[in-house]
Amino acid sequence: MANRPQARTDVNRSAILARLGAHGPASRADLARALNVSPALMTQLTKDLLSEGLLRELEHSPSQGGRPARMLGLMSTAGRAIGVKVVADHVAFVDVGIDGTVVRSASEPFDASASTFLADLTGLLRRFVAGGGSAPLLGVGVGVPGSVDRQANGLVDSTQMGWRQVPLGSTLQRELNLPVIVENNVNALAIAERLYGVGRLHENFLVVTIGTGIGAGIMVDGVVLRGSGGGAGEVGHIPVEVDGPLCTCGNHGCLESIIGEAALVRLGRGRGVIGEHSGIAALRGAADSGNAEATRIFSEAGHVLGRTLAGIVHTLDPEIVIVLGEGTAAWSHWSFGFEPAFRSSLIPSRRGVAVAVETWQDESWAQGAAALVLATPFDAEDMAGDQGRLVRERLVEQAFPQAGAGA
């Protein structure tokens, strides 16, 4: 617990970079107000960032009678990171600046079940890295749907992709000769939310993703809760229905087997709403057009999700629940069942917990993976281990090239 105050300070440092990247130069006083940080702490934080070569002092702002404020801006060469989203049928890439802004993105077909999947992924990633800009590359973050033993090792188990003990991190580190940090994709999204999103204002929150799978990222006191083997947050495998549908994990009646994308499509076909070869887009389109049965399918899914999340809220007591994922494109239909089921299932003292539903783009997964690298220089918990230290060394080398050459 001794590390928690430092972890919060570290998040503030990342938030300063994100604020300046999104809104341009600002004074220390402006940053303190925008980020809800005391002026004294802001002075210390910006002093550290200046000494690390991540910020630079610019001209004074116009005076309005008092002492002119010195403006701060980002060092344009402070570095960049690459984020990778890996799923069963494709890979998404983003190249982001030190502030988290996406400057380049791509998506490529990928077969996670192929015998050559590791070599295929390495080749795709190598090609994307080669097309990058001139700013120093600090490292690569990889988000996967499954359990990851440790961010530095990147040993992956994923029922969604049929992977068992896949040495993803060590393989990519060796083949690319770059720092590579691997994490569960929803945990990566939670880190991105803490740095740049709604979670910036909260230290205890729950990120829930709906779509192909159902997952959760749990932020406790500003730190992602990973569990003993990196598998915390597998809410999609909460048993919901006795003798229910077969899940990809091999069990029956898991939450994901009832409200995941495949389950909704199966219901849509079975009830005659969509054709045998149609998918989730057709089901959503039918609901958007007012088809009562399509609307009912989403509403029923929302009801099950609401009751299940109420139990998780009782267990974790988050300040806010943030709903993300490709499934949110149909949230207007999910919400009919979700809101009443969620609120009525909560004990009175928890019924006021906020729920934020964010708009979704596919590259958001990859941006979350890039946040693994961008958070590493300020990682008081040292979750990234040796890979985190390599990222920090690269940051120091580019900020102080003469010192790096003489080392």
From TrEMBL:
Entry-linked InterPro entries: ATPase_NBD, HTH_MarR-typ, ROK, ROK_cs, WH-like_DNA-bd_sf, WH_DNA-bd_sf
Coiled-coil features, chain-numbered ranges: none
Similarity-based family: Belongs to the ROK (NagC/XylR) family.
Domain of life of the source: Bacteria
PROSITE patterns referenced in this protein's UniProt entry, alphabetically: ROK
The protein, known as: ROK family transcriptional regulator
Domain HTH marR-type: 15-56
SUPFAM superfamilies reported for this sequence: Actin-like ATPase domain, Winged helix' DNA-binding domain
One Pfam family linked to the record: MarR
GO molecular function: DNA-binding transcription factor activity
Organism listed in the record: Lacisediminihabitans profunda
Lineage of producing organism: Bacteria, Bacillati, Actinomycetota, Actinomycetes, Micrococcales
